[in-house]
Amino acid sequence: MYPIVLLSFFGIVTLFLGFSKSKNILLPATLLFLIIALAGNFLEWNKGPLLYFYDMLRVDNVTLAFNGIILLSAFMIFAISGGFQDNPDSEPAEYFGLMLFSLVGALMMVGFQHLIMLFIGVEILSVAMYVLTGSNKRNLRSNEAALKYFLMGAFATGFMLFGITLLYGATGSFKLEQIQGFASNMQVGSESYILYAGLLLLLIGMLFKVSAAPFHFWTPDVYEGAPTIFTTFMSTVVKTAGFAALFRLLSGSFTGVYGFWWIVIAAIAVLTLLVGNIGATSQNSFKRMLAYSGISHAGYLLIALTALSKPSQNAIIFYSLAYSLSTICAFGVLMLVSKEKTIGGQPNEYYDAFNGLAKQNPLLAFVLTVSMLSLAGIPLTAGFWGKFFIFTSAAERGIIWITVIAVLMSTVGIYYYFRVIISSYLKEGDLVKIRVAPFYKVILVLATFLTILFGLAPGIFEGLI
Amino acid sequence: MNNTYLPSDYLPILVQFFLAAAFIGGTMIVTHMIGPSRKSKLKDDPFECGIESVGDARTPISVKYFLVAILFVLFDVEVIFMYPWAVNFKELGMFGFLEMLLFMALLLSGFYYVIRKGVLNWEE
Amino acid sequence: MIPNPNIPEVSIPSVIQNIPLQHYLILSTLLFVIGIIGVLTRRNAIIIFMSVELMLNAANLLLIAFSSYRSDPSGQVFVFFIMAVAAAEVAVGLAIIVMIYRNTRNTDIGFLNKLKW
């Protein structure tokens, strides 16, 4: 609860800090705010389930773990943004303020116990992201991405709202516990059909937001068009919050009708895996490939939701963490490399931008390699254990066929993740030594270190929750 | 207070509605019949000030109007949260009052931000 | 926590209940479907946006109907939140559309025709 209140306040403070003369205090100030929020988050660790705001928000260790992942990812992203100093047109105070507000929305989505809280959380997060996607005002690609994201996001919100309305009509409450109570003892009748329809519509809305197929079509365009730093934010914070919300919704309210929805989610998971992995193989742009890879990782996370067995909870948390760390590394390196050469005024985000990276920049090449290995799920990285836990959770429920498909698809993943490694190590290129700010380097190394640490000893993490 | 209304109780509203419609329709018909009407090109001009009108009426409007209109929509809608609060003012008591003060403070901080940004500064 | 203030029992005029709930359900679903069709078939950003608003208002109408029939004010409170959030969305959405207009100098937003969804 503390980080929600703190970050709302800090967001306003950040907006007003933008009026001060010196622009240099913004970045340290927001990083300090995030550290305070992280500390406030873990104040409630092991205090047991606490309810706030008239039982609308629940704080337990699962909430806190998701909050921790979100705030840590945000901290790293803020740090590698460098305070947006390189672009004279940028408005750092507004970007930081909006990102802090969107974090409030993400934290509300993680801990919600009441569907109003879910709706407001989703909207705070989404509306801030629409603005940030279009923040590159003069760039037509950014404009187009913002418009697509906005229209599709608003469309998804419509589905979500109608779903919530139907759930309310069937159960007479917005509270997860009461919906759970109703759904568990439901007779087949008109109310049960309304409940099913509501659940389906709500799921469609939420799956839109986490970019699961067949609701993924906006993702590659938006990820490609948005400024890379905000793409990183979208693919880590938004995705983690979306899956935390889906997990809480399904585990908190609809375990009673598991027989109805599991097959729907399973079908969507398989479709998402197929679309994400096969789409990624045919890309020439690294950034667009990462967008498709984000879709495929949504597919893996959906497997854990399909199973919804005991290990699912830990699997989702661990996978989100591993995915966020690797994604931040990948985008972090991309941001540095793409600035070196431009094609028609645009940063070069194609695979060939990485040609010969290892020769002059061995550290960047190493960071990139570890993150790609982790995303591909190669052993000794965190990504491997993430996939392992997810497959375990599916096996626990006895759904083996979906695991087989997922393993097949992750071998497809090796092809496109290794392309960039091959570019950076084996291909000839004329990349000069890229100057990296020390703080930037620290963040990249830290994320890489954590990826390897969790890869070597996943038990450290498992003992925590 | 009587909480049960029959459909017949709404009859006065219907009568009022018909009267309003009839008045508008009636005056329009009557003015057409009794007023003199001369048609010419000058008469059909949108403006009749002795100066020939230039250009199209659909010119782009300054973006400042857009900003002010959007800000109006934003701040206008927030008022709906005050209606339920005002209705339950006595029951909510001091706690409700403080909460509303907090809400207004947050809203006004946004307003102050808008002013500092110079959005409402008409003459630049 | 602060104790929940006593919310007086809300009574609904019986004349509202003369209309069966199913009628509200059918009307709202129709509006919602019209909104979806509008989003999927139209190619003008503003009209797509209007269709989305229609979807939101269909949900609002149904929430009010359910809320009245259950004598439960929480549905109406949700409508307030939806209205406030929709206003914020309108502000951001129109700002994005204006931004695109400034860059492409096109009233008709023919820009959208080039996009492949």
From TrEMBL, chain A:
Q: What membrane topology is annotated for this entry?
A: Multi-pass membrane protein
Q: Where are the transmembrane segments?
A: 25-43, 64-84, 96-128, 149-170, 193-217, 229-247, 259-278, 315-337, 363-386, 398-418, 439-461
The record ties this protein, via InterPro entries, to:
NADH-Q_OxRdtase_suN/2 (IPR010096), ND/Mrp_TM (IPR001750)
The principal location of this protein is membrane
Q: In what residue span(s) does the NADH:quinone oxidoreductase/Mrp antiporter transmembrane domain sit?
A: 114-410
Q: Which reaction does it catalyse?
A: a quinone + NADH + 5 H(+)(in) = a quinol + NAD(+) + 4 H(+)(out)
Q: Name one Pfam family in it.
A: Proton_antipo_M
Question: Which cellular compartments is it found in?
Answer: Cell membrane; Endomembrane system; Membrane
Asked if the record carries the keyword ATP-binding, the reply is no
Q: Look up keyword Transport and say if it applies.
A: yes
Keywords assigned: Cell membrane, Membrane, NAD, Quinone, Translocase, Transmembrane, Transmembrane helix, Transport
List the EC numbers from the record.
7.1.1.-
Q: What does this protein do?
A: NDH-1 shuttles electrons from NADH, via FMN and iron-sulfur (Fe-S) centers, to quinones in the respiratory chain. The immediate electron acceptor for the enzyme in this species is believed to be a menaquinone. Couples the redox reaction to proton translocation (for every two electrons transferred, four hydrogen ions are translocated across the cytoplasmic membrane), and thus conserves the redox energy in a proton gradient.
Q: Which HAMAP family match?
A: NDH1_NuoN_1
Q: How does it assemble?
A: NDH-1 is composed of 14 different subunits. Subunits NuoA, H, J, K, L, M, N constitute the membrane sector of the complex.
Task: Family membership, please give it.
Answer: Belongs to the complex I subunit 2 family.
Any idea what this protein is called? NADH-quinone oxidoreductase subunit N
> In which organism is this protein found?
Dyadobacter linearis
Q: Which gene encodes it?
A: ndhB_1
UniProtKB/TrEMBL annotation, chain B:
Family label:
Belongs to the complex I subunit 3 family.
Q: Where in the cell is it found?
A: Cell membrane; Membrane
Name the membrane topology term.
Multi-pass membrane protein
How does this protein assemble?
NDH-1 is composed of 14 different subunits. Subunits NuoA, H, J, K, L, M, N constitute the membrane sector of the complex.
Source organism of this protein record = Dyadobacter linearis
Tell me what reaction this enzyme catalyses.
a quinone + NADH + 5 H(+)(in) = a quinol + NAD(+) + 4 H(+)(out)
Q: Please explain the role this protein plays, according to its UniProt record.
A: NDH-1 shuttles electrons from NADH, via FMN and iron-sulfur (Fe-S) centers, to quinones in the respiratory chain. The immediate electron acceptor for the enzyme in this species is believed to be a menaquinone. Couples the redox reaction to proton translocation (for every two electrons transferred, four hydrogen ions are translocated across the cytoplasmic membrane), and thus conserves the redox energy in a proton gradient.
Report the main location listed first in the record.
membrane
Its name, as the record gives it, is NADH-quinone oxidoreductase subunit A
**Which PANTHER family does this one have?**
NADH-QUINONE OXIDOREDUCTASE SUBUNIT A, NADH-UBIQUINONE OXIDOREDUCTASE CHAIN 3
Q: E.C. number, please?
A: 7.1.1.-
Q: Which residues form a coiled coil?
A: none
| Keyword DNA-binding belongs to the record | no
TrEMBL record, chain C:
Keyword Oxidoreductase annotated: no
Decide whether keyword Transmembrane helix is in the record. Answer: yes
Its record classes its membrane topology as:
Multi-pass membrane protein
Q: Keywords for this entry?
A: Cell membrane, Membrane, NAD, Quinone, Translocase, Transmembrane, Transmembrane helix, Transport
The signal peptide, as residue positions, is none
Transmembrane segments annotated in the record for this chain: 21-40, 47-66, 78-101
EC number(s) given by UniProt: 7.1.1.-
Which reaction(s) does its UniProt entry say it catalyses? a quinone + NADH + 5 H(+)(in) = a quinol + NAD(+) + 4 H(+)(out)
Instruction: Give the principal location in a single coarse category.
Output: membrane
Pfam families, per this entry? Oxidored_q2
InterPro entries xrefs: NADH_UbQ_OxRdtase_chain4L/K, NUOK/Mnh_C1-like
Q: What class of enzyme is it?
A: translocase
Q: Where in the cell is it found?
A: Cell membrane; Membrane
* Family matches, as PANTHER family: NADH DEHYDROGENASE SUBUNIT 4L-RELATED (PTHR11434:SF21), NADH-UBIQUINONE OXIDOREDUCTASE SUBUNIT ND4L (PTHR11434)
Q: What does this protein do?
A: NDH-1 shuttles electrons from NADH, via FMN and iron-sulfur (Fe-S) centers, to quinones in the respiratory chain. The immediate electron acceptor for the enzyme in this species is believed to be a menaquinone. Couples the redox reaction to proton translocation (for every two electrons transferred, four hydrogen ions are translocated across the cytoplasmic membrane), and thus conserves the redox energy in a proton gradient.
Q: How does it assemble?
A: NDH-1 is composed of 14 different subunits. Subunits NuoA, H, J, K, L, M, N constitute the membrane sector of the complex.
The record's similarity note reads: Belongs to the complex I subunit 4L family.
Question: Could you tell me what this protein is called?
Answer: NADH-quinone oxidoreductase subunit K
Q: What is the lineage of its organism?
A: Bacteria, Pseudomonadati, Bacteroidota, Cytophagia, Cytophagales
